[in-house]
Amino acid sequence: MAGESKKTTNHNQIKRWVEARDGKPASVKGTGDNKNAGLLRFRFENGRQPKAELKDITWDEFFDQFEKNKLQMVYQDKTKTGRKSRFNKLVNREPVKRAGTSSGKSKRSNK
Q: pLDDT digits over 70-90, tens only?
């Protein structure tokens, strides 16, 4: 369905999606070192983020960091109007748990 968000950890699926949109793996300059690619992004031709802020990295570097940080990609194939979408976001695979709870849900008192 157009406008629907999906999520994946499949490397081949991520690579196909990015390359189908003229994208490449990248990291934000100044966020990595020799052992760590840094903050991961995708650089798209004619994209909004200035090229100067991103450093191209290899797919191997990207997926190494992707797995180390236990990320998943949330993405959209098409916009609500049916156009090819570039929407994507790299997020944690596991939901963030709130402090003091085990299920991530607030505990309520029945007083």
A: 999 999 999 999 999 999 999
